[in-house]
Amino acid sequence: MTAIHISNVQKRYQSLQALGGVSLSIEEGEFFGLLGPNGAGKTTLISIIAGLIRADAGSVSIHGHDVVTDFRAARRKLGVVPQELVFDPFFTVRETLRLQSGYFGLPNNDKWIDEVMENLDLTNKADTNMRALSGGMKRRVLVAQALVHKPPVIVLDEPTAGVDVELRQTLWKFISRLNREGHTIVLTTHYLEEAQAMCKRVAMMKLGKVVALDTMSSLIRRISGSQLIVHLKAGDLPPDLQHLVLHAETGSQLSTLGRKYSLKVNEYMEVETILARLRESGAVIDEMQLQQADLEDIFLEITGTGAPQ
Ligand SMILES: Nc1ncnc2c1ncn2[C@@H]1O[C@H](COP(=O)(O)OP(=O)(O)OP(=O)(O)O)[C@@H](O)[C@H]1O
Q1: Which of 20, 57, 64, 103 can bridge 208 by disulfide, Cβ–Cβ 3.0-4.6 Å?
Q2: How confident is the model at residue 21 (pLDDT cuts 50, 70, 90)?
Q3: What residues does the ABC transporter domain cover (predicted)?
């Protein structure tokens, strides 16, 4: 079954086209990543999925329920962890979670609330007022709040932005478990290595459009091969190797003198050729390293920008 079906969604803010016709289907049980640089439209798309804002055109359904015409049924299937921390400061953690359960018509939900709190290391804060919690703890409550009604589809918008390593690990352990148990997970994150580790399939967005949609493994294969990083302490890269340059750092960008290049290498044999050409041209290598391409390189190649901030 399709968990989220997005069909030609468009959204404009005055003269700005935030989403220019996004179509995407996410199947039940997937662990899906939504990536893109700042302003790509990820939060706008998530807000439309959550029924918080209306698309100008197109449609979104969750487990077959349209988010506009069948809002309540769609909302029941969905748990959203938003980017921003918004709470009523006068309630305790447990009260906050009970209220949220009530909103979904689940008055006797304490067993699951306890389990969620336990899994997010919130148990000893259950009776603490929201206003007395640290930012990281508040973020845990946001996650717990999204899960109170055991939604089959869970959308997390930058859940680990600015949180410590401990919370990231706790969160990923719990989210992975929910995914293994069949929940569909959709994630946006600033941390590409996190997306690479967790997501099986990703969509990359840029300026309101999906510019790449593939499994993580084919995306990684797309930028085939590796990169050879060479730090030259004398001489420079000969012109006939310039076409291989992925990144270059020179002079003041480096803590040491010289020039540093990342070169695209498709086969290991090519390393030999590159080294021979450098030697012939009089360049002197200070350090070198061979690295597998990762999601960051692909992101750079596809969106033309650095990692999302
Ligand atoms: N309420 C709004 N009014 C006007 N413009 C908006 C509004 N919300 C978003 N935008 C604009 O729409 C575009 C898409 O924003 P959106 O927040 O969806 O991007 P994003 O991919 O989530 O970015 P980020 O990674 O920074 O969160 C941006 O150019 C943003 O400035």
Answers
A1: 20
A2: very high
A3: 4-232
